[in-house]
Every structure is written in structure tokens, then in C-alpha cells.
Backbone:
């Protein structure tokens, strides 16, 4: 049974809220402007590989529901971005130019190379998903740099993703302090790297909201 605590619940809540904000943007603005399709595709890969065990490993109803929501919501976002009308016509492929092969290939190699002691191929798939999630936000951040910022809902979405990872780090710290022999070096390192990638955005987000209000767009120096 996976241990539950307030930090994990806050992390899962932040993640669920990020999907709500994303779908709210998609279905109110009818636009995917400012959203990186490449980041969304990476999240589909992350959750599909991480939750392969949904077919044979039952831990709890809560755990299974979260797996279904994360996979289905990620796939739904990609579907709307690629095939939704008029959404697909608002996507900027030119600005979404980060080469994701540079993220997927190293994560796959690390998933294999650092987990050869595990007999199950699922362990390698799980490790690959952890490494890939750590850097999956990079195409989105790169896109924001190219466009010089983001409208308010996109900013809220990225903030919630960052909070999701921050609360999960606190969850790991709590579990390390309260559970004997709890130590997952892969998730500690990957989660820390991922949260660090959000730090500059956190600062920019808070500065924009403090100076211009909660609904103000996020301005970032363009590259």
C-alpha cells in the first residue's frame, strides 16, 4: 500500500487542477496558442510508460483512478491540439521548436543503463518515465521564451505543474523521515531537477501578478 500524506494529496490536487486549467483554456478560448504540443506529447509518453502496470498491479482505488485520469487527460489534450477545430489552426509549430529527441533518447538510455539489475522490463519503463518527466517542461519553457511570455491561463497551468512537483518533493522528504528504508534516489534527483527548471518561471509569475494583477499575462524576455 502506497503511503498517503498531505503533501502527496496537495501534489495530486495541483496536478489535477493543472488539467482543469488546461481544459478550461482549450474550451473557452478555442485556442492552443502558447501551449507546447511537444511538452504535451512528452507527458503522454511519461504517463503511458509509468502506468503500464495499471493492468496487473492494483494498489488502491485512489491510485488506479489517478492513473486513468493522468493518462486519459494527457491523451485528450494532445488530441484536441492536433485534431480539434479550430484549436489545431491556432498552434504555432514554428515557436514549438525544441528538439525533443534530445530529451527522449537520453532518458531512455538512462532508464536501461541504470536499471540493469532489475529483472522486470517495467522497472526500466518506470525509470525512463521518471527521467523524461524531469525535463518534459523544457519545450514549453522554450516556447515561452520565443514568444516573450504567456497569457494568464497558460501561466496558471505551468505554475500548478511546478507546485505539483514541489509538493511531491515534500512528500518524499516526509516519507524518508517517517518510513524505514524509504529512499528512491531516482525520483529525488529527477524531481529536484524538474522543480529547479520552474524556479525562474515562479519568480517571473509572482512578479507579474504582484505588479499587474492575477489576470495579467506573463512577460518573459524573448530569445
Residues:
Amino acid at each position: 500500500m502506497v503511503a498517503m500524506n498531505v503533501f502527496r494529496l496537495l501534489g495530486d490536487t495541483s496536478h489535477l487542477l493543472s488539467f482543469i486549467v488546461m481544459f478550461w483554456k482549450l474550451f473557452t478560448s478555442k485556442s492552443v496558442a502558447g501551449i507546447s504540443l511537444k511538452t504535451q506529447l512528452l507527458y503522454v509518453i511519461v504517463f503511458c510508460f509509468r502506468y503500464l502496470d495499471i493492468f496487473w498491479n492494483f494498489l488502491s482505488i485512489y491510485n488506479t483512478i489517478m492513473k486513468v485520469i493522468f493518462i486519459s487527460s494527457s491523451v485528450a489534450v494532445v488530441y484536441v491540439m492536433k485534431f480539434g477545430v479550430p484549436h489545431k489552426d491556432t498552434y504555432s509549430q514554428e515557436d514549438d521548436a525544441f528538439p525533443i529527441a534530445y530529451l527522449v533518447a537520453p532518458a531512455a538510455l538512462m532508464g536501461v543503463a541504470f536499471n540493469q539489475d532489475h529483472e522486470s522490463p517495467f522497472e526500466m519503463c518506470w525509470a525512463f518515465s521518471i527521467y523524461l518527466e524531469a525535463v518534459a517542461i523544457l519545450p514549453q519553457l522554450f516556447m515561452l521564451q520565443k514568444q516573450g511570455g504567456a497569457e494568464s491561463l497558460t501561466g496558471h497551468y505551468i505554475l500548478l505543474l511546478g507546485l505539483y512537483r514541489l509538493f511531491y518533493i515534500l512528500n518524499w522528504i516526509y516519507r524518508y523521515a517517517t518510513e524505514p528504508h524509504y529512499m528512491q534516489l531516482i525520483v529525488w534527483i529527477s524531481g529536484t531537477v524538474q522543480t529547479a527548471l520552474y524556479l525562474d518561471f515562479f519568480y517571473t509569475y509572482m512578479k507579474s501578478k504582484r505588479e499587474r494583477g492575477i489576470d495579467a499575462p506573463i512577460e518573459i524576455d524573448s530569445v
Observations:
- Residues 185-212 form the longest helix (28 residues).
- The chain has eight helices and two strands.
- The CA atoms of residues 26 and 67 lie 22 Å apart.
- The chain has one domain: 6-89+97-215.
